[in-house]
Design goal:
- The complex is a heterodimer of chains A (300) and B (280).
- Chain A has 300 residues and is an all-alpha fold.
- Chain A is built from 17 helices and no strands.
- By secondary structure, chain B is mainly α.
- Chain B is 75% helix and 0% strand.
- The longest helix of chain B has 34 residues.
- The chains are: A mainly alpha (300), B mainly alpha (280).
- The interface between A and B is large, with 101 and 92 residues.
Chain lengths: 300, 280
């Protein structure tokens, strides 16, 4: 550090002598800041453009969408595409399937995860090290490589085209265990001993002390798990073949077949499918941001 | 003991058992549903002569090249830009860059397929400006993978931006203040402070991206369907095709295992490499 600072101050001296003082440097910095801000905003505008364009398309009527004089600005406010999407597709059923399966996945993953993490963190039992190694390893294992035999298994159990079929293979989310364990490790040991002396058991400890102490983490992990489950495409796509049982991400791919070439309706369905999570994100932006950071281990 | 039971049971059922079964199946000629005969290494031998396998392998590698480093660089640039903002402006700009990440993949592909539509796509004039003519991007072999890469970066980049922002926030402000007082330029600040201290996050982003992009399926399936002429097949699509379209459970299992091994080897290798790089 010392060496670096020395080098820095030497450079400062040369900068002062060559550029004629701080005033000029500051002005240049201010200008640079403005240019950088402009670039950032242009970048953001480009980045959001696809969503903007999907929206503009969805509120036009089909003829106008493909007409020569359809410009880049919104010039119509026509909700036909939305109305038709809601009434002519099974999107309402897909919502129910998506919300139902994602909620069940989130609850089951959190409960089984926190229990397992608690045992790993606070208890000593034979096989503990192996279990921990398994959790860490499954973090790296690509589940996609298992879809063939997972499908065979679901078929053998008669779970193809059912919620249980969608849910079961999505219940292993090792990151939940890993994050919970980290936070449980940090809880002071004295609390545990006090409760055990009072005759409380491990379940009392977990649900009365460790869990309430870590509500923030629970919310964060719930958000992440829910978003992951909601957006899951590959597995539900394989295990569901009947249109009524589809989830949102799988269902909206059917729309092209239903409507043929009809861009406004395709965009309307896509946006309807994206809306719940997108709106939830915009409302709870800070919470979601935090959740992503915590679950990736960058921020503790 | 009852505490670990739910996880262990589910793990055994949907992870361990399918894992063992996929290895077993890869040595048989079983259809997707039903049993087959033991054929030893026949499936693997067949793989070595399967052109689609080489195409897929090549495309997986190509796609990693097209996405991992570009998305890391773009995410870092965006993170630095967003980090300079404050208050509502920062929240707004960050939301703009993050929003695509929480969209279902099929929403993303529907929107991009429309924007790139050969006849009416809003991006065709842009393509025409650069290439001289409109291009049916998902019907031209040379265009498919790069286009899928662009769509993928747009979709998943927000996650990386967040990781970098978290990393940037972890760098103590005093370091910048000290260095600025010493007259360090922006470039020096970045090279001497930001980059070395951010290295662990950069390594994390690259590792996660590498593994994620090797598992490519959704975007290719939804955008090009592996075409034209199977030229944009990737390994996971081959698994899907063999198992669910051609009913070759055994052969599909062999492909799945190759993918499995590739991902494990690559991630262990990269992990080691990055750790060495970080030490320097």
């Amino acid at each position: 550090m010392n060496v670096r600072r020395m080098q820095g101050s030497e450079r400062a001296d040369t900068a002062l002598t060559t550029s004629g003082g701080w005033g000029v440097n500051l002005n240049i910095r201010k200008l640079e800041n403005k240019v950088l801000l402009a670039i950032t905003l242009i970048g953001a505008a480009i980045w959001i453009f696809p969503l903007y364009w999907a929206f503009v398309t969805s509120i036009r009527d089909e003829d106008h969408v493909v007409s020569e004089n359809a410009g880049i600005l919104p010039d119509m406010f026509n909700l036909t595409a939305y109305v038709e999407s809601i009434f002519n597709t099974s999107i309402l059923k897909w919502y129910v399937n998506s919300i139902g399966t994602s909620l069940i996945i989130t609850v089951l993953v959190l409960i089984s995860g926190m229990m397992c993490a608690y045992a790993l963190s606070q208890m000593r039992f034979p096989g503990r090290r192996i279990l921990y190694a398994v959790v860490m390893a499954s973090f790296m294992i690509p589940t996609q490589a298992l879809v063939v035999t997972q499908f065979v298994l679901m078929n053998d159990m008669g779970l193809v085209n059912t919620w249980a079929g969608i849910i079961l293979p999505q219940l292993i989310v090792p990151v939940v265990i890993i994050v919970y364990k980290q936070f449980f490790d940090a809880v002071p040991k004295e609390m545990r001993e006090a409760v055990l002396l009072d005759g409380g058991g491990e379940y009392t400890l977990l649900f009365k002390i460790y869990l309430p102490l870590n509500w923030g983490i629970t919310t964060a992990l719930a958000i992440i798990t829910f978003i992951m489950a909601w957006n899951q495409f590959f597995w539900p796509f394989l295990v569901i073949t009947s249109e009524d049982m589809m989830t949102i991400p799988v269902g909206i791919t059917q729309v092209r077949d239903t409507f043929g070439v009809s861009y406004a309706r395709v965009m309307a369905v896509a946006l309807l499918g994206a809306a719940p999570v997108a709106i939830a994100y915009l409302i709870f932006q800070k919470k979601v941001t935090e959740a992503v950071m915590i679950s990736s281990g960058v921020k503790g | 003991m009852t505490l670990i039971a739910p996880f262990v049971l589910i793990f055994g059922l949907v992870f361990l058992y399918p894992m063992i079964r996929v290895v077993e199946l890869s040595f048989t000629n079983a259809p997707l549903i039903g049993s087959g005969e033991w054929v030893g290494l026949e499936n693997y031998r067949q793989l070595l002569t399967d052109n689609l396998f080489y195409t897929s392998l090549k495309n997986n590698g190509y796609f990693v090249l097209l996405t991992v480093i570009p998305t890391t660089v773009i995410a870092l640039a965006i993170a630095i830009a967003v980090n300079r903002l404050s208050g509502r402006m920062q929240a707004l700009v960050l939301a703009t860059f993050f929003l695509p990440y929480i969209l279902p993949v099929s929403v993303v592909t529907q929107i991009w397929a429309w924007m790139l539509d050969f006849q009416f796509g809003i991006l065709q004039p842009v393509i025409e400006y650069f290439v001289g003519e409109p291009v049916a991007v998902f019907k031209q072999p040379a265009w498919v993978m790069p286009t899928v890469a662009v769509v993928t970066i747009w979709w998943t980049n927000g996650f990386n931006v967040l990781l970098f922002i978290a990393g940037l926030r972890n760098i103590p402000k005093e370091l910048y203040e000290a260095a600025s007082l010493d007259g360090a330029t922006r470039r020096q600040l970045f090279m001497k402070v930001t980059w070395p201290l951010l290295w662990p996050v950069t390594a994390l982003v690259m590792t996660l991206q590498l593994i994620l992009q090797l598992k490519l399926f959704d975007q290719v399936y939804l955008l090009s369907g592996g075409g034209p002429f199977n030229s944009s097949y990737v390994l996971l699509m081959m698994v899907y095709r063999e198992a669910f379209q051609l009913n070759n459970g055994g052969y599909a299992s062999a492909v799945a295992l190759v993918l499995f091994v590739v991902i494990m080897v690559v991630s262990v290798l990269q992990f080691q490499l990055l750790r060495m790089g970080g030490r320097k």
